[in-house]
Amino acid sequence: MKRVVLLLLLFLLSTQIQAQSALYPFFDNKSGLWGFRTIEGEVQVEAEFRMARPFNEGLAFVEKCQERRGPCHYAFINREGELILELPGHLMVYSANQFISEGLVAVHDKQLGKFGFIDLSGQVVVPFDYDLAFNFSEGKAVVFVCPEDEDNDYREINELSDACKKQVINKSGQVVLNVSKTYFHAWGTNPHGTPIAYHEGLLRVMHFKTGKMGFIDSNGKLVIPCEYDYVDNFSEGLAFVTNLKNTYMDNPGGNIVGYIDAKNQLRIKLPAHLADLPNGCYFQGTSFESGKARMIITENDGDCANWGYLEIDHKGEIIKENWQ
User: Fold this and answer.
1) Which has the least CB within 10 A, 69, 87, 269, 279?
2) Full-prediction pTM beyond 0.85?
3) Measured distance CA(299)–CA(3) in Å, rounded
4) How far apart are CA 304 and CA 279, in angstroms?
5) CA-to-CA distance for 291 and 238, rounded, in angstroms?
6) Which of 152, 173, 174 lies closest to 164 in space, CA to CA?
7) E-strand spans in 66-139?
8) Burial of 173 by CB count in 10 Å (0-12 exposed, 13-18 middle, 19+ buried)?
């Protein structure tokens, strides 16, 4: 009997956790503000934020203003809408880092012109020593250290990237890897872009000369050659890749659009009935989550008549199609 009761309690607890995880930002047209609701549409946190990002590790990044045109501040809130951490005005969190990861967040100090890491109490955990930094993942964070220059700030990292040191640090701020100058961190030179971090032990990089992308491991060894025009992060053992520059379908017949495994084997490829789409179609792939991912076909220049998405499983079998 005790075992049955215990199993029932565990089931109820898991159900509650799953319900809590289904909380998403929504935009209220009447107020022009953001709030949070469940996937069923039940409002959990009223719309009172000028900006709201998805929850991660139980917290969400928001921007709240005192009045319509009044002063605003950035903060992290919990699922009840309670303020957990309010950032002082001189600290900024750029879009690539607008989530808590492993209890820390990378922030930019406008007074110092440097990036560092703080915890949920607002205490500095890793000093402001970096010209660019991305959130921790798997205990490591990617940072840039650039030559001293009075005009040097994060907006100039793209131009200075060849001269900058690309490093991986641990939570003590110790450098655990100096990334070869052969590689740029793909899209890692933009604090407003995609976050750059280790996923399943691999970090995506871009070759300095060819512009092709691949993956290095925690030792800096190139384990998947830089032979793709685009790669996404690994999730559930698979990563979306394409060998089409900027993922345009210029010549779809002989190209790769699909998912590879950690051994660089193509496990899922674009279904044959989509291989002859016109040049105006643009392909993207989402990371796998709970055994599902989406291959998205979008319109780029107005010539893509068929656009929508395929929902697929780990075998590449189509679960659902949705076309506009």
Assistant:
1) 69
2) no
3) 55
4) 7
5) 11
6) 152
7) 72-77, 83-86, 91-92, 104-109, 114-119, 124-130, 132-133
8) middle
